[in-house]
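hey so i finally got around to running both of the ones u sent me last week. sorry it took forever, my laptop kept dying halfway thru and i had to restart like 3 times lol. anyway pasting them below in the order u listed, first the sequence line then the structure token line for each. didnt double check formatting much so if smth looks off just lmk and ill redo it

first one:
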Amino acid sequence: MSSNAEEMMELHWLFDMLQHIDVGLVVLNEKYEVKLWNSFMENHSGMSSSIAKERSLFSIFPDINNNWLEQKLDNVIALRTPIFISWEQRPHLFPFKSYRPITGVADKMYQNVALRPITNADGSVKYVCMVVYDVTDVATNKQSLSNANSQLDYLSKTDPMTQLHNRGSVDKKLQSAFETFLNAGGSHSLVMTDVDFFKKVNDKYGHPAGDLVLQAVAKALSSSVRKTDFVGRYGGEEFVILLPNTDVAGALFFCESVRKKIADMKIKTANDVISVTMSFGISAASSVDKAPCDWISRSDEALYKAKENGRNQSVVYSTE
């Protein structure tokens, strides 16, 4: 076989490989006109090579951000260096459908795109090769793992009954708030509150009804606080509310508002309508506290005083 025939055969193999390789290949000139459009691009765009060639890429895909991509293509030619576009920066450049199993979670194909300069024999660069990689599996797997980790993190911090922060999360938040107070000072209030005579609710209506009461109370508490406040379930029917940048007068006003709101609630169960009241104990962060447990203890003392005085009331801690 002559050398010319061998060269033609190699050229044929090369062209066949470029056409059928499982990545998108697009060659653009300086005017962003298509010079090469392989079968990957044909199959996923629904546009044949004969139609795409000599057309501007932006006329084929008008939704592509012209200025953004033109700048990148111009830089590839001017600097003679490749540029990579990750799916994490931009999920896709070309809006191709994801041809994955029915169980797939992505409607569009996630893509990594490499923009590479093509050097002519004389050393000049007038063309850019766009290599489009389908990374849908990698992207969706990473997103699924991230979602799973987020869910596990949420579950580790959340009380399953009330969907409030759990005891572990409360302890961490109080430690952080206490350290902030020691370093920067300010007025910060801590509220301990629980449902009055909750055991009687369980005894009279049953534990499922008691669970509904706790959920209704938790919803009332969480819907009453500011974004900067913190609500958690401390244990059983007892809850903690942290009110940053709030003195005891402001905390008392807040607690009285919530106390009245809960006293007016009618909690419907399968067979009954239940009403409950709550007692609140309030204390301010103090420089004499050596640890968050001292702060909690004072709020707990105020809560005990509220119950001792007849329940369904709010009490601010006092040394008297």
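and the second one:
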Amino acid sequence: MSDKKEKQAIGLSYDGFNAPKVIARGFDELAEEIIAVAKEHGVLVHEDPLLSDSLAKLNVGDEIPRELYIIIAEIIAFAYLLDGKFPRQWEEG
């Protein structure tokens, strides 16, 4: 039995209104493909084994659970800032 942990990737989509949903989920080789496609399309890839383990329990189409809202919101906000996107209120100041 191997102690090597399988690679996993979970892709989320957020429409700005509803809770983020799982849009892709894969392990090992499929995880590598999901990560490669995300990077090719300029999607932020965030590596967090504990978060990944929690999200891996979900199926494609599932919304993230409430207990993950804050961490996912922080990651989405960080991705927006990296993209140069800011809340409208910041620009109106």
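quick thing i noticed on the 2nd:
The chain is about 40% helix and 15% strand.
anyway thats it, ttyl
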